[in-house]
Each structure stands twice: as C-alpha cells, then as structure tokens.
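Lab notebook, bench 4. Still working through the backlog of constructs that have no structural model yet. Next entry is a single chain of 417 residues. Request: give me the structure tokens for it.
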Amino acid sequence: MLPINRSRSQSRAGSPWSFPGMDYSDSRRKPQVIGKLVMVAILTAFCIFILKQSPAFSGPSVFSRREVGVTHVLVTGGAGYIGSHAALHLLKDSYRVTIVDNLSRGNIGAIKVLEGLFPEPGRLQFIYADLGDARAVNKIFAENTFDAVMHFAAVAYVGESTLDPLRYYHNITANTLTLLEAMSAHGVKTLIYSSTCATYGEPEKMPITEGTPQLPINPYGKAKKMAEDIILDFSKKSDMAVMILRYFNVIGSDPEGRLGEAPRPELREHGRISGACFDAALGIIPGLKVRGIDYPTNDGTCIRDYIDVTDLVDAHVKALDKATPSKVGIYNVGTGKGRSVKEFVKACKKATGVEVKVEYLSRRPGDYAEVYSDPSKINQELNWTARYINLQESLSVAWSWQKAHPNGYGSQSVVAL
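Model written out:
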C-alpha cells in the first residue's frame, strides 16, 4: 500500500493546479476586467464631483450663512423702479443681496440685468414671493440669514389709492406688519423703510421738515403713515435699528443706462409725470395730460420736489451705514427746491427734443398744491446731499434709457418656484 501512496503524492506534485471554470484563456481576460474597473472608478469620481456642486451635498446655501465682512441685505420690491436701483447700488458696494418681489409691479427684466452684472455665486439671489403670504415670508427668513432689510415693496400711485383704498392698506400697512413679525421672529435687527412725503398731506408751511405734522389726505399717504406708526411702536420695545426715509417725487434712471423705469401699460394713467411725458414723446400716447391748473401757485399747477433716483438710493445706503441699534432716524429725502408741473413739462420737452402735446384737465383726486422738502437734517446727520439737481439733465438720462427700451424690459416670464 505504501508504494501506491507515494506514487499518488508524486503525481499531485508534478501536475499543475486547476480550478473549475478556469483555463488558459483567463490571462487574456485580465486586461478587460482591469479596464472595466478603471472605467467604473472614473464614473464614480465624476458622479461625486457633480454631487459636490449641488447645494444638497455641499451643505447650506451661502445666503444662509453669516460671513465676516459681508452684510446681507433683503431688498423687498427689488424688481421695481426704485428697488432695482437700490439693489444695484448695494451690489456695487459689495453687499450680498436677496431680492423678494411678486412682480405685480416689478420687472423680471431688471432682475436679469442685475444677475448679468453680478453673476458671481453668493452675490445676488431672487425669490419670487408675496409679502402678503406670511408662511412664505417666514420660510424666506428661516432659510436665509439677513443682516438688514430695505423695504420698498408697495403699490404707490396716489390716484389709484383713491379708487382702490383697501388694496393699499393691505399691500402697504398689513404687509409691513407681516415683514416686521418675521424680522422679530428671526432676529433681524435693522430696517430701512421706504416712506413718502404723502404722509404729510398738504402742510400749511413750506418747506416740509421732519417735524411737520403728518396729516395725509389720500389712502396711499395714510397707509404709509400707518406702517410708520407700527414700526415706531414696535421699535420702542426692541433694540432694532430703524431708518425711515420720506422721499419726494422720483425721476431719472441709472446714469450708465443699465436700469430704468418701466411701468405696466395698464398703470400708465396712474404713473409718474415723467413716464407720461416720455410715452407722449415716443408716440405711445397722443399727448401729456396735466391735471389741475387752478392750484394756488404761481402758474396754477402743482409744485413738487423732484429727486433723482440715483440720489435717493444713495440716501438709503447711507442710512443703512448709519443705522444704530435701539435708535430711530427719520429723514426727508429731497432737493429742497420745488418745481411746478409746467416747469417740468418744459424741461421734458427739451430733454426729449419733442414738442409734446399738452392737455390740461381738472384736478386728480387726493392731490395737493405744493410740496417740497427741507433736507437739512439728512444733510447734517447722514452727510447726504442731492447731487443730480438739474431737472433737464435727470430727464435726459431717463429719456436715453426709454429710447433704448421702448418696450421696457421686454416680455416677462416667471418660473414657478
């Protein structure tokens, strides 16, 4: 038996090892297997790279984090005429900006312009939302970290306010309350509020100072005053820094031609006189309608203080810079010089080079004869002075934008969020 065992041992030792399913061709398949493994590794690495670019993978948005040296400002109504110019000023000054607008009066085209000028991540975001939706407003504050709020969002036509007063009280007064509640709940401590000289009504003495009694005579002015009162009452029991800017009649546009005023066609009859004058010069409407020639003024037409939008938003940024916790600042923002509507029409004709047809009509409901500011307080305390005070030059700048954009910012489309 022993010799047989040795023979089997020797036979195993001299034979090659073999396993089921393998033969000499496996050596040829090894390069194919390795190639597939390399491809899988490359695809995996690529997928990880793509995932890292998504907010869900990389963590919270930059807009939800505080950064040293970066001030994040929420601009309500930032797609509108004044709000978009304010956002532009803030972005130029290296602020981080979030715009919230429901586009009922604003323009998505203005947002696209700003996004094109400041495409860098973390500079600007736009959120389509209505301040009347408290749940949406609270969600915005929960998902973002704001240092300050500039509150422009509002319907803002005197004549329209007399026709639809409840809309004005809801849009201006109630929405401001909703915004304040969200600021309080989420610890946002600075508010720059865009108010109006309409809160003064028709004062007995000119010029208007911040101490002039507030006796508004139309729903627009009344709604703004109510919003001011809410803010002031709340500020008494908080450490919020509050700046209220009561400004006068706004004209002009960005001197570099990037932004302008583009009201919706259905609102032209309620809009600013500058817009109506430009529409007449462009042939969109047959002529300019001046309402009221029997006011107790030198030429019978209203007298207003026309403030260039570039100066106005500069005042807002200066107010933001000077805002102090537990303090309230109230300022008139104007040139300090009143101009009649007839003077304005004359300047507009020169700016456009068009002999605009003028039709004189009866007074508009809720209007007042004479309003112009005393800007001494803002001059002294915020070191702000109106620079663009030549009426014809401001209108010429605005006219250049209007000629280049006869259809405003073009057609609007909103992606549902």
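Notes after review: Residues 251 and 274 are 7 Å apart (CA to CA). Residues 1-25, 51-58, 411-417 have pLDDT under 50 and may be disordered. Flag for follow-up if needed.
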